[in-house]
Amino acid sequence: MFKTKITPLALVIASLSAPASADLIISEYIEGSGYNKAIELYNNATTDIDLSEYSLQRYSNGSASVSTEITLSGTLAANSTYVIVNADTRASTDLSDKADLLDSVVNFNGDDAIVLTKDGSVVDSFGQVGFDPGSSWSEGGVTTANQTLRRKDEITTGRTTPDAAFNPSEEWVQFDQDEFDGLGSHAGNGGTTPEPIPEPEPLEPLVCGAEKTLINAIQGDGSASPLVGTLVELEGVVTADFQGDDQLKGFFVSSLATDIDANPLTSEGVFVYFADTDVNVGDHVRVQGTVEEYFDATQIGSVSQVAICDTGLPVAATKITLPLADTTDLESFEGMLVTLEQPLVVTNNFGLGRYGEVELATERLYQGTQVALPGDTANAVETENLLKKILLDDGSTVQNLDPTAYPTPGLSAENTLRTGDTVNTVTGALAYSFSLYRIHPTLAPQFIATNAREDAPELNAEADLRVASFNVLNYFNGDGQGEGFPTARGADSEAELIRQEAKIVSAISAIQADVVGLMEIENDGFGEFSAIASLVNALNEADSANQYAFVDFNVDQIGT
Protein backbone atom coordinates (compact mmCIF):
# COMPACT_ATOMS: atom_id res chain seq x y z
CA MET A 1 0.00 0.00 0.00
CA PHE A 2 1.24 3.45 -0.89
CA LYS A 3 0.51 6.55 1.11
CA THR A 4 0.47 10.04 -0.33
CA LYS A 5 2.28 12.59 1.77
CA ILE A 6 0.45 15.93 1.88
CA THR A 7 2.92 18.76 2.49
CA PRO A 8 1.98 22.20 3.88
CA LEU A 9 2.59 23.66 0.42
CA ALA A 10 0.26 21.11 -1.13
CA LEU A 11 -2.42 22.06 1.38
CA VAL A 12 -2.00 25.74 0.56
CA ILE A 13 -2.25 25.10 -3.16
CA ALA A 14 -5.19 22.73 -2.73
CA SER A 15 -7.11 25.51 -1.07
CA LEU A 16 -6.48 27.70 -4.11
CA SER A 17 -6.73 25.34 -7.02
CA ALA A 18 -10.44 24.71 -7.54
CA PRO A 19 -11.05 26.23 -10.99
CA ALA A 20 -13.54 29.05 -11.29
CA SER A 21 -14.94 30.98 -14.22
CA ALA A 22 -12.21 32.26 -16.56
CA ASP A 23 -14.02 35.50 -17.40
CA LEU A 24 -11.10 37.53 -16.04
CA ILE A 25 -7.52 36.66 -17.02
CA ILE A 26 -4.06 38.18 -16.70
CA SER A 27 -3.33 39.61 -20.15
CA GLU A 28 -0.13 41.64 -19.72
CA TYR A 29 2.83 41.57 -17.34
CA ILE A 30 5.37 44.38 -17.08
CA GLU A 31 8.58 43.82 -15.12
CA GLY A 32 10.42 46.91 -16.24
CA SER A 33 13.39 48.88 -15.02
CA GLY A 34 13.38 50.23 -11.49
CA TYR A 35 9.83 50.55 -10.17
CA ASN A 36 8.09 50.09 -13.52
CA LYS A 37 5.79 47.16 -12.71
CA ALA A 38 2.24 46.49 -13.88
CA ILE A 39 -0.40 43.83 -14.48
CA GLU A 40 -3.21 44.09 -17.02
CA LEU A 41 -6.42 42.11 -16.49
CA TYR A 42 -8.85 41.37 -19.33
CA ASN A 43 -12.58 40.66 -19.18
CA ASN A 44 -12.90 37.75 -21.58
CA ALA A 45 -16.66 37.50 -21.11
CA THR A 46 -19.56 38.93 -23.10
CA THR A 47 -21.01 40.67 -20.04
CA ASP A 48 -19.78 43.05 -17.38
CA ILE A 49 -18.14 41.53 -14.30
CA ASP A 50 -18.06 42.60 -10.67
CA LEU A 51 -14.40 43.11 -9.76
CA SER A 52 -15.15 42.96 -6.03
CA GLU A 53 -15.34 39.17 -6.38
CA TYR A 54 -11.67 39.06 -7.43
CA SER A 55 -8.37 39.36 -5.61
CA LEU A 56 -4.81 39.64 -6.90
CA GLN A 57 -2.08 37.99 -4.84
CA ARG A 58 1.71 38.16 -4.96
CA TYR A 59 3.92 35.30 -3.71
CA SER A 60 7.47 36.62 -3.29
CA ASN A 61 10.77 34.77 -3.63
CA GLY A 62 9.32 31.27 -3.83
CA SER A 63 7.02 31.69 -0.84
CA ALA A 64 4.08 29.32 -0.45
CA SER A 65 2.21 32.00 1.50
CA VAL A 66 0.66 35.18 0.16
CA SER A 67 3.06 38.11 0.50
CA THR A 68 0.63 40.83 -0.59
CA GLU A 69 -3.00 40.74 -1.66
CA ILE A 70 -5.57 43.24 -2.84
CA THR A 71 -9.30 42.84 -3.36
CA LEU A 72 -10.43 44.66 -6.47
CA SER A 73 -13.48 46.90 -6.77
CA GLY A 74 -15.75 48.34 -9.41
CA THR A 75 -17.22 46.92 -12.61
CA LEU A 76 -15.30 45.94 -15.73
CA ALA A 77 -17.11 45.99 -19.06
CA ALA A 78 -16.97 43.06 -21.46
CA ASN A 79 -13.82 42.88 -23.61
CA SER A 80 -12.19 45.61 -21.52
CA THR A 81 -8.97 45.80 -19.54
CA TYR A 82 -8.10 46.84 -16.00
CA VAL A 83 -4.53 48.01 -15.37
CA ILE A 84 -2.81 47.85 -11.98
CA VAL A 85 0.48 49.79 -11.74
CA ASN A 86 3.02 49.91 -8.93
CA ALA A 87 2.11 52.70 -6.51
CA ASP A 88 5.72 53.79 -5.99
CA THR A 89 6.06 57.39 -7.15
CA ARG A 90 9.37 56.53 -8.82
CA ALA A 91 7.55 54.50 -11.48
CA SER A 92 7.50 56.12 -14.93
CA THR A 93 4.62 58.52 -15.49
CA ASP A 94 4.25 56.98 -18.95
CA LEU A 95 3.27 53.82 -17.09
CA SER A 96 1.30 55.22 -14.16
CA ASP A 97 -0.80 57.36 -16.50
CA LYS A 98 -2.27 54.13 -17.89
CA ALA A 99 -3.35 52.85 -14.45
CA ASP A 100 -6.86 52.12 -13.30
CA LEU A 101 -5.38 51.35 -9.90
CA LEU A 102 -2.06 52.13 -8.21
CA ASP A 103 -1.05 49.49 -5.68
CA SER A 104 2.13 47.88 -4.34
CA VAL A 105 0.75 44.38 -4.93
CA VAL A 106 2.42 44.57 -8.36
CA ASN A 107 5.81 45.67 -6.99
CA PHE A 108 7.15 42.27 -8.00
CA ASN A 109 10.41 40.91 -9.37
CA GLY A 110 10.96 38.32 -12.05
CA ASP A 111 10.93 35.46 -9.54
CA ASP A 112 7.60 36.35 -7.88
CA ALA A 113 4.38 34.47 -8.65
CA ILE A 114 1.04 36.22 -9.27
CA VAL A 115 -2.33 34.58 -8.62
CA LEU A 116 -5.80 35.88 -9.55
CA THR A 117 -8.67 34.48 -7.50
CA LYS A 118 -12.45 34.74 -7.61
CA ASP A 119 -14.22 34.20 -4.30
CA GLY A 120 -11.11 32.36 -3.07
CA SER A 121 -10.70 30.06 -6.08
CA VAL A 122 -7.92 30.42 -8.63
CA VAL A 123 -8.93 31.72 -12.05
CA ASP A 124 -5.45 32.49 -13.38
CA SER A 125 -1.80 32.52 -12.34
CA PHE A 126 1.63 33.61 -13.50
CA GLY A 127 4.78 31.86 -12.25
CA GLN A 128 4.94 28.92 -9.86
CA VAL A 129 3.83 29.36 -6.27
CA GLY A 130 6.19 27.80 -3.73
CA PHE A 131 9.17 27.68 -6.09
CA ASP A 132 11.98 30.22 -6.41
CA PRO A 133 13.54 30.03 -9.89
CA GLY A 134 16.45 32.29 -8.96
CA SER A 135 15.93 35.60 -10.73
CA SER A 136 13.31 34.58 -13.31
CA TRP A 137 11.40 31.88 -15.13
CA SER A 138 13.13 31.65 -18.50
CA GLU A 139 12.38 29.19 -21.28
CA GLY A 140 11.88 29.21 -25.02
CA GLY A 141 13.43 32.66 -25.38
CA VAL A 142 10.94 34.24 -22.97
CA THR A 143 11.95 35.46 -19.51
CA THR A 144 9.97 37.00 -16.66
CA ALA A 145 12.75 39.42 -15.62
CA ASN A 146 13.18 42.90 -17.10
CA GLN A 147 10.65 42.36 -19.89
CA THR A 148 7.12 43.13 -21.00
CA LEU A 149 5.07 39.98 -21.65
CA ARG A 150 1.69 39.89 -23.39
CA ARG A 151 -0.70 36.95 -23.30
CA LYS A 152 -1.12 35.20 -26.61
CA ASP A 153 -4.54 36.17 -27.88
CA GLU A 154 -5.58 32.57 -28.47
CA ILE A 155 -5.32 32.02 -24.69
CA THR A 156 -8.85 32.61 -23.43
CA THR A 157 -8.82 30.56 -20.22
CA GLY A 158 -6.81 31.07 -17.09
CA ARG A 159 -3.99 28.94 -15.73
CA THR A 160 -5.58 27.46 -12.60
CA THR A 161 -2.66 25.34 -11.30
CA PRO A 162 -0.36 27.90 -9.67
CA ASP A 163 1.91 25.19 -8.20
CA ALA A 164 2.65 23.65 -11.61
CA ALA A 165 5.97 24.19 -13.40
CA PHE A 166 5.83 27.44 -15.35
CA ASN A 167 7.10 27.92 -18.90
CA PRO A 168 6.39 31.53 -19.93
CA SER A 169 6.90 30.82 -23.64
CA GLU A 170 3.80 28.59 -23.77
CA GLU A 171 1.29 31.41 -23.32
CA TRP A 172 3.24 34.65 -23.47
CA VAL A 173 4.97 36.81 -26.09
CA GLN A 174 8.01 38.83 -25.05
CA PHE A 175 8.56 42.51 -25.82
CA ASP A 176 11.28 44.99 -24.87
CA GLN A 177 11.80 46.18 -21.31
CA ASP A 178 9.69 49.25 -20.50
CA GLU A 179 7.45 48.66 -23.54
CA PHE A 180 4.14 50.19 -22.38
CA ASP A 181 2.46 51.04 -25.68
CA GLY A 182 0.12 48.06 -25.70
CA LEU A 183 -0.87 48.35 -22.05
CA GLY A 184 -4.61 48.85 -21.65
CA SER A 185 -5.66 46.97 -24.78
CA HIS A 186 -5.97 43.28 -25.56
CA ALA A 187 -7.45 41.54 -28.61
CA GLY A 188 -8.60 38.47 -26.69
CA ASN A 189 -11.33 35.98 -27.58
CA GLY A 190 -9.04 33.88 -29.74
CA GLY A 191 -7.89 36.76 -31.90
CA THR A 192 -4.60 36.95 -33.70
CA THR A 193 -1.57 37.70 -31.56
CA PRO A 194 0.50 40.61 -32.88
CA GLU A 195 3.86 39.59 -34.17
CA PRO A 196 6.60 40.11 -31.60
CA ILE A 197 9.32 42.63 -32.26
CA PRO A 198 11.47 41.14 -35.03
CA GLU A 199 15.03 40.07 -34.40
CA PRO A 200 17.48 42.88 -35.20
CA GLU A 201 19.72 42.71 -38.21
CA PRO A 202 23.14 41.12 -37.56
CA LEU A 203 25.58 43.65 -36.13
CA GLU A 204 28.96 44.49 -37.53
CA PRO A 205 31.56 42.59 -35.45
CA LEU A 206 33.46 44.67 -32.93
CA VAL A 207 37.06 45.52 -33.85
CA CYS A 208 39.47 45.67 -30.93
CA GLY A 209 41.69 48.73 -31.06
CA ALA A 210 39.34 50.72 -33.27
CA GLU A 211 38.09 54.18 -32.34
CA LYS A 212 36.39 54.11 -28.94
CA THR A 213 34.88 56.23 -26.20
CA LEU A 214 37.09 56.44 -23.12
CA ILE A 215 35.61 55.34 -19.81
CA ASN A 216 36.62 58.62 -18.14
CA ALA A 217 34.69 60.48 -20.85
CA ILE A 218 31.65 58.32 -20.15
CA GLN A 219 31.85 59.03 -16.43
CA GLY A 220 32.59 62.74 -16.79
CA ASP A 221 33.60 64.95 -13.89
CA GLY A 222 30.13 65.40 -12.38
CA SER A 223 27.55 63.31 -10.59
CA ALA A 224 26.01 62.06 -13.86
CA SER A 225 27.43 61.05 -17.21
CA PRO A 226 27.42 63.73 -19.93
CA LEU A 227 26.76 60.95 -22.48
CA VAL A 228 23.49 59.50 -21.16
CA GLY A 229 21.55 57.91 -24.01
CA THR A 230 24.59 57.69 -26.28
CA LEU A 231 25.54 54.44 -28.02
CA VAL A 232 29.24 53.90 -27.33
CA GLU A 233 32.03 51.42 -27.86
CA LEU A 234 34.54 51.23 -25.03
CA GLU A 235 37.53 49.10 -24.14
CA GLY A 236 38.90 48.16 -20.76
CA VAL A 237 39.98 45.44 -18.38
CA VAL A 238 37.45 43.38 -16.42
CA THR A 239 38.17 44.02 -12.73
CA ALA A 240 35.16 42.33 -11.09
CA ASP A 241 32.78 39.67 -12.41
CA PHE A 242 29.23 39.50 -11.02
CA GLN A 243 27.43 37.98 -14.02
CA GLY A 244 25.62 35.18 -12.16
CA ASP A 245 21.81 34.92 -12.23
CA ASP A 246 21.84 35.51 -8.47
CA GLN A 247 24.28 38.41 -8.74
CA LEU A 248 24.35 41.83 -10.42
CA LYS A 249 24.16 40.30 -13.92
CA GLY A 250 27.12 42.27 -15.11
CA PHE A 251 30.78 43.10 -14.69
CA PHE A 252 33.03 46.06 -13.91
CA VAL A 253 35.55 47.39 -16.42
CA SER A 254 38.42 49.82 -15.83
CA SER A 255 40.40 51.87 -18.32
CA LEU A 256 43.42 50.45 -20.08
CA ALA A 257 46.62 51.93 -18.65
CA THR A 258 47.16 54.02 -21.80
CA ASP A 259 43.67 55.54 -21.57
CA ILE A 260 43.79 56.92 -18.01
CA ASP A 261 43.50 60.71 -17.90
CA ALA A 262 45.00 63.18 -15.45
CA ASN A 263 41.69 64.47 -14.10
CA PRO A 264 41.13 63.32 -10.49
CA LEU A 265 37.38 63.98 -10.81
CA THR A 266 36.73 61.42 -13.57
CA SER A 267 36.34 57.77 -12.69
CA GLU A 268 38.25 55.18 -14.71
CA GLY A 269 35.70 52.41 -14.15
CA VAL A 270 32.14 51.58 -15.14
CA PHE A 271 29.60 48.79 -14.62
CA VAL A 272 28.43 46.86 -17.68
CA TYR A 273 24.95 45.39 -17.25
CA PHE A 274 25.34 42.29 -19.42
CA ALA A 275 25.70 38.58 -18.73
CA ASP A 276 25.21 36.91 -22.11
CA THR A 277 28.93 36.84 -22.93
CA ASP A 278 30.99 35.18 -20.22
CA VAL A 279 33.98 37.26 -19.14
CA ASN A 280 36.70 36.77 -16.55
CA VAL A 281 38.75 39.12 -14.41
CA GLY A 282 41.77 40.22 -16.44
CA ASP A 283 40.01 40.05 -19.80
CA HIS A 284 40.58 42.98 -22.15
CA VAL A 285 37.10 43.57 -23.58
CA ARG A 286 35.41 45.82 -26.09
CA VAL A 287 31.78 46.65 -25.28
CA GLN A 288 29.03 48.19 -27.39
CA GLY A 289 26.12 49.58 -25.42
CA THR A 290 24.23 52.65 -24.28
CA VAL A 291 25.26 54.97 -21.45
CA GLU A 292 22.63 55.02 -18.69
CA GLU A 293 22.09 56.56 -15.28
CA TYR A 294 20.38 53.78 -13.36
CA PHE A 295 19.11 55.37 -10.15
CA ASP A 296 22.02 57.84 -10.25
CA ALA A 297 24.66 55.19 -11.03
CA THR A 298 26.43 55.40 -14.38
CA GLN A 299 26.39 52.12 -16.28
CA ILE A 300 26.48 50.64 -19.77
CA GLY A 301 23.12 49.06 -20.56
CA SER A 302 21.26 47.77 -23.63
CA VAL A 303 24.51 46.01 -24.50
CA SER A 304 24.50 44.55 -28.01
CA GLN A 305 28.00 43.06 -28.16
CA VAL A 306 31.02 42.19 -26.05
CA ALA A 307 34.28 41.10 -27.67
CA ILE A 308 37.20 39.62 -25.74
CA CYS A 309 40.37 41.18 -27.14
CA ASP A 310 42.92 39.61 -24.79
CA THR A 311 43.10 37.69 -21.52
CA GLY A 312 45.25 37.59 -18.40
CA LEU A 313 45.90 41.30 -18.02
CA PRO A 314 47.00 42.48 -14.57
CA VAL A 315 44.36 44.11 -12.38
CA ALA A 316 45.25 46.70 -9.75
CA ALA A 317 43.02 48.28 -7.12
CA THR A 318 43.03 52.01 -6.41
CA LYS A 319 43.54 52.92 -2.77
CA ILE A 320 40.88 55.00 -1.01
CA THR A 321 40.66 55.97 2.65
CA LEU A 322 38.07 56.92 5.24
CA PRO A 323 36.98 59.37 6.50
CA LEU A 324 36.12 61.27 3.35
CA ALA A 325 36.54 65.01 3.04
CA ASP A 326 33.16 65.28 1.31
CA THR A 327 30.24 62.91 0.74
CA THR A 328 30.71 63.27 -3.04
CA ASP A 329 34.37 62.18 -3.01
CA LEU A 330 33.60 58.59 -4.00
CA GLU A 331 31.88 59.64 -7.25
CA SER A 332 35.30 59.90 -8.90
CA PHE A 333 35.91 56.20 -8.11
CA GLU A 334 32.47 54.85 -9.11
CA GLY A 335 32.83 51.60 -11.04
CA MET A 336 36.52 51.17 -10.20
CA LEU A 337 38.30 48.40 -8.30
CA VAL A 338 39.25 49.98 -4.96
CA THR A 339 40.88 48.92 -1.73
CA LEU A 340 40.77 50.26 1.81
CA GLU A 341 43.94 49.29 3.65
CA GLN A 342 43.02 50.51 7.10
CA PRO A 343 41.35 49.10 10.21
CA LEU A 344 37.58 49.34 9.85
CA VAL A 345 34.91 48.54 12.41
CA VAL A 346 31.58 46.79 11.89
CA THR A 347 29.15 49.52 12.90
CA ASN A 348 25.88 48.05 11.54
CA ASN A 349 25.05 44.43 10.70
CA PHE A 350 21.26 44.78 10.46
CA GLY A 351 21.16 43.90 6.75
CA LEU A 352 23.63 41.02 6.96
CA GLY A 353 21.20 38.09 7.02
CA ARG A 354 18.70 39.38 4.49
CA TYR A 355 20.80 41.42 2.08
CA GLY A 356 24.42 40.40 2.71
CA GLU A 357 25.26 43.97 3.72
CA VAL A 358 27.54 45.25 6.49
CA GLU A 359 28.34 48.87 7.32
CA LEU A 360 32.04 49.48 7.98
CA ALA A 361 33.42 52.65 9.52
CA THR A 362 36.49 54.15 11.08
CA GLU A 363 34.82 53.66 14.47
CA ARG A 364 31.50 52.50 15.88
CA LEU A 365 28.93 55.10 14.93
CA TYR A 366 25.83 56.17 16.82
CA GLN A 367 22.65 57.96 15.85
CA GLY A 368 23.09 61.68 16.16
CA THR A 369 20.38 62.01 18.80
CA GLN A 370 22.06 59.37 20.97
CA VAL A 371 25.11 61.56 21.50
CA ALA A 372 23.70 65.05 20.94
CA LEU A 373 20.52 67.04 21.38
CA PRO A 374 18.10 67.00 18.41
CA GLY A 375 18.65 69.81 15.96
CA ASP A 376 21.78 71.26 14.41
CA THR A 377 24.16 69.44 16.76
CA ALA A 378 22.68 66.00 16.11
CA ASN A 379 22.47 66.74 12.38
CA ALA A 380 26.16 67.60 12.38
CA VAL A 381 26.93 64.21 13.95
CA GLU A 382 24.93 62.45 11.22
CA THR A 383 26.79 64.37 8.51
CA GLU A 384 30.12 63.43 10.06
CA ASN A 385 29.02 59.79 10.24
CA LEU A 386 28.44 59.75 6.48
CA LEU A 387 32.09 60.63 5.92
CA LYS A 388 33.30 57.77 8.08
CA LYS A 389 31.49 54.76 6.63
CA ILE A 390 31.10 52.53 3.59
CA LEU A 391 28.72 49.64 2.87
CA LEU A 392 30.09 46.16 2.19
CA ASP A 393 27.68 44.36 -0.18
CA ASP A 394 28.11 40.71 -1.20
CA GLY A 395 26.93 41.42 -4.76
CA SER A 396 24.12 38.88 -4.54
CA THR A 397 20.52 39.67 -5.49
CA VAL A 398 19.21 36.76 -3.42
CA GLN A 399 17.62 37.62 -0.11
CA ASN A 400 18.39 35.49 2.95
CA LEU A 401 21.30 33.76 1.22
CA ASP A 402 22.35 30.53 2.91
CA PRO A 403 25.07 30.48 4.01
CA THR A 404 25.33 34.19 4.72
CA ALA A 405 28.46 35.58 3.12
CA TYR A 406 30.15 37.06 6.19
CA PRO A 407 32.15 36.14 8.10
CA THR A 408 34.03 33.54 6.03
CA PRO A 409 33.13 30.70 5.50
CA GLY A 410 29.59 31.67 6.53
CA LEU A 411 27.57 33.06 9.40
CA SER A 412 26.67 30.61 12.16
CA ALA A 413 26.12 30.52 15.91
CA GLU A 414 29.80 29.67 16.30
CA ASN A 415 31.02 32.12 13.65
CA THR A 416 29.26 35.41 14.28
CA LEU A 417 29.83 38.95 13.09
CA ARG A 418 29.18 41.47 15.84
CA THR A 419 29.23 45.23 15.76
CA GLY A 420 32.66 46.25 16.99
CA ASP A 421 34.43 43.45 15.11
CA THR A 422 37.14 44.66 12.74
CA VAL A 423 38.66 44.10 9.31
CA ASN A 424 42.00 45.45 8.10
CA THR A 425 41.60 45.31 4.31
CA VAL A 426 38.61 45.49 1.98
CA THR A 427 38.98 45.19 -1.80
CA GLY A 428 36.24 45.23 -4.42
CA ALA A 429 34.27 47.14 -7.03
CA LEU A 430 32.85 50.48 -5.91
CA ALA A 431 29.20 50.90 -6.91
CA TYR A 432 26.29 53.19 -6.08
CA SER A 433 22.74 52.01 -5.46
CA PHE A 434 19.87 52.70 -3.07
CA SER A 435 21.47 56.10 -2.36
CA LEU A 436 24.64 54.56 -0.90
CA TYR A 437 28.15 53.87 -2.13
CA ARG A 438 29.06 50.25 -1.60
CA ILE A 439 31.91 47.84 -2.21
CA HIS A 440 31.22 44.48 -3.85
CA PRO A 441 34.22 42.48 -2.61
CA THR A 442 36.43 40.58 -5.02
CA LEU A 443 38.51 39.20 -2.15
CA ALA A 444 36.83 37.70 0.92
CA PRO A 445 37.28 40.16 3.81
CA GLN A 446 38.92 38.62 6.85
CA PHE A 447 37.04 39.79 9.93
CA ILE A 448 38.59 39.76 13.38
CA ALA A 449 36.32 39.02 16.34
CA THR A 450 37.35 41.87 18.62
CA ASN A 451 34.04 42.37 20.43
CA ALA A 452 33.24 39.03 22.03
CA ARG A 453 29.92 38.68 23.81
CA GLU A 454 30.12 38.86 27.59
CA ASP A 455 29.08 35.72 29.44
CA ALA A 456 27.05 37.90 31.81
CA PRO A 457 26.58 41.65 32.25
CA GLU A 458 28.43 43.51 34.96
CA LEU A 459 25.74 44.67 37.37
CA ASN A 460 25.87 47.68 39.63
CA ALA A 461 25.80 46.26 43.14
CA GLU A 462 23.71 49.20 44.36
CA ALA A 463 21.09 48.98 41.62
CA ASP A 464 17.67 47.48 42.38
CA LEU A 465 15.87 48.00 39.03
CA ARG A 466 16.67 46.20 35.77
CA VAL A 467 15.61 47.93 32.52
CA ALA A 468 15.83 46.26 29.11
CA SER A 469 14.76 46.76 25.52
CA PHE A 470 13.64 44.00 23.17
CA ASN A 471 12.93 43.94 19.43
CA VAL A 472 9.98 41.59 18.85
CA LEU A 473 10.54 41.70 15.07
CA ASN A 474 7.05 42.56 13.82
CA TYR A 475 4.88 40.90 16.44
CA PHE A 476 1.46 41.24 14.76
CA ASN A 477 -1.29 39.07 16.25
CA GLY A 478 -4.00 39.19 13.58
CA ASP A 479 -7.35 39.97 15.17
CA GLY A 480 -6.12 38.64 18.52
CA GLN A 481 -8.55 35.72 18.38
CA GLY A 482 -6.74 33.35 16.04
CA GLU A 483 -7.84 34.94 12.77
CA GLY A 484 -6.73 37.86 10.60
CA PHE A 485 -3.75 36.22 8.92
CA PRO A 486 -1.58 36.88 7.04
CA THR A 487 -0.80 40.11 8.86
CA ALA A 488 0.53 43.30 7.30
CA ARG A 489 4.11 42.80 8.46
CA GLY A 490 4.23 39.86 10.82
CA ALA A 491 3.10 36.25 10.94
CA ASP A 492 1.50 34.63 7.90
CA SER A 493 -0.59 32.26 10.02
CA GLU A 494 -1.70 31.56 13.57
CA ALA A 495 0.80 28.69 13.74
CA GLU A 496 3.63 31.03 12.80
CA LEU A 497 2.48 33.56 15.42
CA ILE A 498 2.47 30.85 18.10
CA ARG A 499 6.02 29.91 17.16
CA GLN A 500 7.15 33.53 17.14
CA GLU A 501 5.42 34.29 20.44
CA ALA A 502 7.00 31.31 22.20
CA LYS A 503 10.48 32.50 21.28
CA ILE A 504 9.78 36.06 22.41
CA VAL A 505 8.29 34.94 25.71
CA SER A 506 11.23 32.63 26.40
CA ALA A 507 13.78 35.36 25.69
CA ILE A 508 12.08 38.15 27.66
CA SER A 509 11.46 35.84 30.60
CA ALA A 510 15.14 34.90 30.68
CA ILE A 511 16.19 38.55 30.83
CA GLN A 512 14.23 38.98 34.08
CA ALA A 513 13.92 42.73 33.60
CA ASP A 514 11.63 44.88 35.71
CA VAL A 515 10.88 47.24 32.81
CA VAL A 516 10.98 46.22 29.14
CA GLY A 517 10.74 48.61 26.19
CA LEU A 518 9.39 46.83 23.10
CA MET A 519 10.30 47.61 19.49
CA GLU A 520 8.47 46.57 16.29
CA ILE A 521 5.24 45.55 17.99
CA GLU A 522 1.95 46.12 16.16
CA ASN A 523 0.50 49.56 16.82
CA ASP A 524 -3.13 48.47 17.24
CA GLY A 525 -4.10 50.06 20.53
CA PHE A 526 -4.39 48.62 24.02
CA GLY A 527 -7.65 46.70 23.99
CA GLU A 528 -8.30 43.11 25.02
CA PHE A 529 -7.15 41.69 21.66
CA SER A 530 -4.33 44.12 20.91
CA ALA A 531 -0.81 42.88 20.24
CA ILE A 532 0.59 44.36 23.45
CA ALA A 533 -2.18 42.76 25.52
CA SER A 534 -1.67 39.36 23.86
CA LEU A 535 2.07 39.40 24.45
CA VAL A 536 1.83 40.51 28.08
CA ASN A 537 -0.78 37.82 28.75
CA ALA A 538 1.55 35.21 27.25
CA LEU A 539 4.43 36.42 29.42
CA ASN A 540 2.32 36.27 32.57
CA GLU A 541 1.03 32.79 31.75
CA ALA A 542 4.63 31.58 31.38
CA ASP A 543 5.78 32.98 34.73
CA SER A 544 3.17 33.29 37.45
CA ALA A 545 5.72 34.64 39.92
CA ASN A 546 6.74 37.66 37.85
CA GLN A 547 3.75 39.46 36.40
CA TYR A 548 3.98 42.29 33.85
CA ALA A 549 1.53 45.08 33.08
CA PHE A 550 1.66 47.34 30.04
CA VAL A 551 1.37 51.11 29.92
CA ASP A 552 -2.09 51.87 28.49
CA PHE A 553 -2.31 55.17 26.61
CA ASN A 554 -6.04 54.59 26.07
CA VAL A 555 -5.87 55.38 22.34
CA ASP A 556 -6.53 53.31 19.24
CA GLN A 557 -3.01 53.93 17.96
CA ILE A 558 0.09 55.77 19.10
CA GLY A 559 1.06 58.62 16.80
CA THR A 560 -0.73 60.01 13.79
TrEMBL record:
Signal peptide: none annotated. InterPro entries: Endo/exonu/phosph_ase_sf (IPR036691), ExeM-like (IPR047971), Lamin_tail_dom (IPR001322), Lamin_tail_dom_sf (IPR036415). SUPFAM superfamilies: DNase I-like, Lamin A/C globular tail domain. Residues 180-202 are annotated as: Disordered. Residues 14-130 form the LTD domain. PANTHER family: ENDONUCLEASE/EXONUCLEASE/PHOSPHATASE FAMILY PROTEIN (AFU_ORTHOLOGUE AFUA_3G09210) (PTHR42834), ENDONUCLEASE_EXONUCLEASE_PHOSPHATASE FAMILY PROTEIN (AFU_ORTHOLOGUE AFUA_3G09210) (PTHR42834:SF1). This is LTD domain-containing protein.
